[in-house]
Please model this.
Amino acid sequence: MELKFVSAQRARFTIIFVCAKEFNHDFVSDRELLDLVGFDGSDETAALFAERKEIYVGVEDICDPESFRIAAAKAVSVLKGLKIEEAHIDNYDRGGAAISEAIAIGFLLGAYEFSMYKSTPKPAALKTIHFGPKNYFGEKTDEKGVKRALKKAKLLADSVNFARDLINKTPDDMTPAILADAAMEIAGKYGLEGKIYDAQYLKSSGMGAFLAVSRASKNAPRLIHLVYKPSHPKKTVAIIGKGLTYDSGGLSLKPADYMCTMKADMAGAAAVIAIVKAAAELRLPVEIHAIAGAAENMIGGDAYKPDDVLTAMNGKTIEVKNTDAEGRLVLADCIAFAQKNTQNLDCILDIATLTGACVVALGEHTSGVMGFNAGLKASLLKAADESGELAAELPFNRHLKKLIKSEIADVANASSTRYGGAITAGLFLSEFIEEKNRDKWAHLDIAGPGYVEKGWGVNPSGASGAAVRWLVRWLESL
Ligand code: BES
Ligand code: ZN
Ligand code: ZN
Model:
């Protein structure tokens, strides 16, 4: 779908946003009609008047960009089912074009469809939405600002939708090798340094934890390392993604219901590739090392087992208590790799669909943020809010740390109780952060929002592309 600034209204179909709080104002011209159909302008509601060629969509709060993103996504989700090819919208900014950017991104994310596996895909008729020269109050809009906002929204949405496409593919169509090829394609397109490491390299580097997870699969693992190097970087960051192209749980096999959607266990890896792509397109002045550990967690005669003791790249030994806690094993080696193979890091972030416990703690819409540095965590929470993603801190404490002690190895990969599982997973990862880097690191658990079973906000069902908008905003803030 295309978004265009137009100097006069051309499309006959109009999208009109109405704020719940201002519903009784005089400028809501069709109040009686809207009253009649019971439309009050609240969140995620719409009233379609086909014969008048108008759709009204609710905006919960006129000062909140997220209300506009959600309203725009709602509008396209209704229009998708109709035969309308072009629609028009006025702007809702009074000075600045922040709301126009929010509306644009809502349209582009809400319009996303993944139809690769449909034998007869039915593409939506809607091709273009025109942003008009006036705002809703009849004032002339800031043309340059709106044009810039549309361009930025397109760039961001393309990156989010790129991540969604990678995640939505079936595990057989998105193996570690295929993911690595996709990463190299991005490297080629944007002039990034790209390196792919295979099982042989993992073995010779002593990445015993990563290797063990991948061992039972016919699809061999890959470690992906992309580098975006602007000429005068203000900061250098490593962003590490969990890339389980399938997580069956391994010998600690998942129950049937829980296994569905585990193709999305590579959402962290997809996010880091999409983030570095967006950063390169935006020419952000930050050197970025995007690192992803891609593997498939399967069962078989050669599978790793509960009771195994693994040795990670940094020499630490890990008692395997549960083979379904595999993401932290892959990340342990990727975190060690990042610290060994990059220089002058200012920040180390990891992004992972790491624990069901995080979803229990925060709900399906919110990511968990963990780490030792309050300032870094605060900057991440702020960026999440500005980007339209939800995130909340899960605090470490000394008592939870005891739960991953092992009798026979340095650390255990699963906690001895069923409480606080998102935090004990974060504490496990912290064991692989070198002392000098403690305050540079934060862990983002996207298990909740990574994959959407029933659409919400700007996300149709399927992969959401979580963390892409969030971390691009964060990188911009550095
Ligand atoms: N990939 C899962 C976590 C997950 C669950 C992501 C639900 C998205 C939605 C992870 O590998 C896992 O299975 N974690 C276990 C850890 C446990 C065995 C300590 C979990 O959360 O149950
Ligand atoms: Zn698992
Ligand atoms: Zn997993």
Observations:
- The pocket of zinc ion (ligand 2) is lined by residues 247, 249, 324, 326 (CB under 6 Å).
- The first helix runs from residue 31 to 36.
- The two ends are 32 Å apart (CA to CA).
- The chain has two domains: 2-137, 159-477.
